[in-house]
């Protein structure tokens, strides 16, 4: 459907705002920003450039953003207990590219999580890493497919001596074996990169593993999945000065030029919210994910990871092959304004990527709107009813969601 007039474009923007406020949003890679953070998107920073570092810019007129960027960097170092922080990547992929471009040379061996095993496209041949080396191998997985097989991986690392291993993934139910692989990686001089895109907010809240303390060389991440926003990327480390210079160059000019100053200002606000609320928020998110998984399990769904308590993160994975598969199920749910994604599961061949058996659910956004364990039970019930072909569910979804409109874990009420 074409959009002809400016009024129609503006109408679609309003429609999106209105519609999503009535949906049960369960996409695992999304979050919502507070009103205070959203307001910064309309600031003058949206029009400006500031290449380089605060105080040493290639542009004039950057005094205010310099102060914000300096404070944001200091806040993140404090939040993640590290010495170095790069805030200029404009996405998680951009952060990964900044690292890979400076630490991976043609032919270098890198070990990653496979796509069915939950790995992200930026770790693969077709994505960012594939631009720098084609020599990429997958971690061996345990029989359930949701854990790296540590014994086999230690053997493989000793035998092949990779330049890097990339831990962290997109289908991310349980912590990665950073501590368990740290010793062998020290012996083989393999660097541990931890992609914390999905779990950055949980790491900030100290309710998930602490990859830097456990032995990771650096952490990359998106700042808008479990972190409160804005849509950007970050690199965190306590590495030596020389190595950090490579990351610095990788970020600019390596993988970005201007770094979208309005979203940087938004991230500074969101980071203050994280400092104040991350611990309580991340505990609530993980409790809700476990509650939703258990509620779906009680209704007969094939919830993954059951023998390990379903999940330790914000995510729940369900095999819905017997309900027509992830593509069909996610469409049926969307028709009732329950929004989530299809997802490959570890047992599936790559050829099934567009018709996988799985769905991936994230509870972080609904948690921010004040939902807790009883509401997770209701969501499971609505999903169940919807897949049994129940009628009139959309109205019920709207009615239910209508009671959860106020964003929590932020300073909006203090305005
Ligand atoms: C593990 C992982 N790394 C990196 C990314 C890329 O993040 P972004 O969308 O911010 O580029 C994602 C996105 O889903 C991801 O799941």
Can you give me a brief rundown of this structure?
This protein is an alpha/beta fold. It has helices spanning 6-20, 35-39, 63-79, 92-103, 150-160, 178-188, 200-204, 211-214, 241-255, 261-298, 326-334, 364-368, 373-387, 393-402, and strands at residues 24-25, 52-53, 56-57, 84-86, 110-112, 136-138, 164-167, 191-195, 218-222, 233-237, 302-303, 315-319, 338-339, 341-343, 358-362. Pyridoxal-5'-phosphate binds at residues 29, 91-93, 120, 122, 168-170, 195, 197-198, 222, 233.
Bound ligands, named by name, code or SMILES: pyridoxal-5'-phosphate
Main beta-sheet annotation: 7 strands, mixed
What gyration radius follows from the Cα positions, in whole Å? Answer: 21 Å
Q: How many beta-strand elements?
A: 15
For the record, what CATH class of the largest domain applies? Alpha Beta
Q: Give the strand line-up of the largest sheet.
A: 4-10-9-8-7-5-6
What is the helical fraction, as a range of percent?
Answer: 40-55%
What portion of the residues fall into strands of 2 or more residues? 5-15%
Number of domains: 2
The CATH architecture name of the largest domain reads 3-Layer(aba) Sandwich
Gross morphology: globular
Structural class: alpha/beta
The CATH topology of the largest domain: Aspartate Aminotransferase, domain 2
How many DSSP H or I helices? Answer: 14
Please write the string of helix (H) and strand (E) elements.
HEHEEHEHEEHEHEHHEEHHEEHEEEHHH
CATH fourth-tier homologous superfamily of the largest domain:
Type I PLP-dependent aspartate aminotransferase-like (Major domain)
N/C terminus separation: 40 Å
- List low-pLDDT spans: none
């Amino acid at each position: 459907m074409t959009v002809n007039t400016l009024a129609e474009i503006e109408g679609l923007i309003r429609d999106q705002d209105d519609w999503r406020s009535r949906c049960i949003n369960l996409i695992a890679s999304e979050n919502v920003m507070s009103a205070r953070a959203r307001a910064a998107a309309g600031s003058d920073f949206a029009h400006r450039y500031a290449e380089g570092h605060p105080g040493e810019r290639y542009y004039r007129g950057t005094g205010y953003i310099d102060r914000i960027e300096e404070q944001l960097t200091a806040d993140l170092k404090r939040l993640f207990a590290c010495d170095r922080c790069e805030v200029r990547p404009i996405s998680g992929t951009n952060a990964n590219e900044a690292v890979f471009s400076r630490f991976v040379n043609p032919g270098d061996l890198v070990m990653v999580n496979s796509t069915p095993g939950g790995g992200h496209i930026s770790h693969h041949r077709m994505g960012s890493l594939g631009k720098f080396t084609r020599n990429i191998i997958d971690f061996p997985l345990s029989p359930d497919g949701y854990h790296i097989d540590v014994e086999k991986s230690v053997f493989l690392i000793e035998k092949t001596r990779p330049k890097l291993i990339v831990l962290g993934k997109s289908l991310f139910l349980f912590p990665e074996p950073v501590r368990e692989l740290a010793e062998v990686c020290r012996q083989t001089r393999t660097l541990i990169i931890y992609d914390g895109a999905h779990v950055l907010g949980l790491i900030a809240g100290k309710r998930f593993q602490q990859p830097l303390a456990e032995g990771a060389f650096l952490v990359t991440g998106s700042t808008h999945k479990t972190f409160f926003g804005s849509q950007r990327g970050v690199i965190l480390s306590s590495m030596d000065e020389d190595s950090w210079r490579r990351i610095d160059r990788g970020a600019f000019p390596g993988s970005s030029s201007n770094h979208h100053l309005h979203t940087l200002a938004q991230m500074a606000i969101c980071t203050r919210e994280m400092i104040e609320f991350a611990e309580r928020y991340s505990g609530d998110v993980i409790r809700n994910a476990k509650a939703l998984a258990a509620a779906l399990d009680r209704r007969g769904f094939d919830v993954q990871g059951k023998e390990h308590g379903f999940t330790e993160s914000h995510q729940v994975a369900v095999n819905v092959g017997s309900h027509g598969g992830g593509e069909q199920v996610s469409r049926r749910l969307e028709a009732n304004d329950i929004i989530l994604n299809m997802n490959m599961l570890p047992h599936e061949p790559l050829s099934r990527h567009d018709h996988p058996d799985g769905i991936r659910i994230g509870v972080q956004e609904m948690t921010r709107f004040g939902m807790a364990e009883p509401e997770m039970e209701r969501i499971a019930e609505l999903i169940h009813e919807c897949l049994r072909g129940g009628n009139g569910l959309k109205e019920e979804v709207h009615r239910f969601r209508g009671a959860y409109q106020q964003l929590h874990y932020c300073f909006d009420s203090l305005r």
